[in-house]
Amino acid sequence: MRVAVIDDWQEVAQNCADWRPLASRAEIAFFTEPFDSEEAAAAALSGFQVILPMRERTKFTRSLLERLPELRLLALTGHGTGHVDTEYCAAHGIICCGSGAYSPAGTAEYTLALLLAAARHIPHADAAMRAGRFQQHIPLGMVLEGKVLGVAGLGRIGARVAAIGQALGMRVIGWSTNLTAERAASLGVEPVTKAELFARSDAVTLHLVLSPRTHHVVGAAEIAAMKPGAILVNTSRGPLIEEAPLLAALREGRIRAALDVYDAEPLPPDHELRRLDHTVLSPHLGFCTESSFAAFYGESIENIANWLDGRPSRVIAEKPRAP
User: Fold this and answer.
1) Which domains, ranges and CATH numbers included, belong to the chain?
2) d(CA 133, CA 163)
3) The pLDDT of residue 317
4) 217-250 per-position pLDDT tens digit
5) Cα dihedral angle (192, 194, 199, 205), rounded to 10 degrees?
6) Beta partners for residue 148, in sequence order
7) Is 176 exposed, middle or buried (0-12, 13-18, 19+ CB in 10 A)?
8) What's the rounded Cα separation, in Å, for the pair 188 and 129?
9) Can you say how many angstroms the Cα of residue 152 is from the centroid of all Cα atoms in its chain?
10) How far is it, in rounded angstroms, from Cα 186 to Cα 49?
11) CA nearest 111: which of 49, 184, 189, 168?
12) What percent helix, strand, coil does the chain show, rounded to 5?
């Protein structure tokens, strides 16, 4: 039995859980580099009966699955299946198991970190210190107390971010297509239209599920409506934002962006975002915490062992819910 542990881009998988019980029953291979194409993924993963990916980093499309005839189990980290052709899996006897009780706290806290880094120019300050400078050429920071925080999406993560904003003394307004007055009131958030959210906020943070309905939900009109110097934070999914108008606004210095997610991941080395000022960039780390990965890998090992024993656990097949 061969098990492929893929998408271990941080090279942490082997230290996040005890692999010994599984290693005594199967050959385990760890893949730490992203696949640069579907062809590369198919070539690397051919011959494995079990694949353990890290969340949505690799898309298991029908065309990829067709090239993996020996695959019998996808031991998914998390419970979403939007990156997997579950209909193909069901038709061809490939079981999908989920793992990890993902806490919204990690991403909510990371959102705060990005917001503060952008508001107080922390990356500029760090770079200056490492270059032997002190305060020279560092812009003045923004005090968040008294400012307006716009939260797009008030689910588990968005609700926590709203509470964090309130703790900082910010006035929190919120929008989503399914936000009710009752939900907003329970969170102490003022419900507004999408147009109002972008026009009134000093900082906007996105916490929406990516779907056809939310693809490019932040486009040219929303970015143009933002206040000069306002901050756009995205720890959800890159394609929520239309990239071309965002790049244009950043080139002009009209707004700032604190981004953890991108249209293409990994972000290409020559991507323009890497060269632009008025940005804080991180490599999709919002969910990457010790506790989350311990749950992801620990439960995945258990799922694989149970499957080997003929009693699959945490079996999932449903598509994720729309926002």
Assistant:
1) 2-102+289-308 (3.40.50.720), 104-281 (3.40.50.720)
2) 37
3) 65
4) 999 999 999 999 999 999 999 999 999 999 999 9
5) 90
6) 171
7) buried
8) 40
9) 15
10) 47
11) 168
12) 35, 15, 45
Residue 171, number of CB atoms within 10 A of its CB: 17
With beta carbons less than 8 A apart as the criterion, state whether 317 and 90 touch.
yes
pLDDT in tens, 63-74: 999 999 999 999
Rounded to whole angstroms, how far apart are CA atoms 116 and 258? 9
The answer to whether the CB of 216 falls within 8 A of the CB of 240 is: yes
pLDDT score, position 280 = 98
Pairwise CA distance, residues 155 & 166, whole Å: 16
Nearest CA to 152 out of 106, 103, 210 is that of 210
Spatial contact of 99 and 76, defined as CB atoms under 8 Å apart: yes
* Active site members: 237, 265, 284
Confidence of residue 319 (pLDDT cuts 50, 70, 90): very low
φ, ψ of residue 51 in degrees (nearest 5): -125, 130
- Residue 174 pairs with which residues in a beta bridge? 151, 191
Token representation of residue 201: 């906020």
The full length of the chain comes to 323
- The partner residues of 84 in beta bridges, in order of sequence, read 60
Tokens representing 237 are: 């999914």
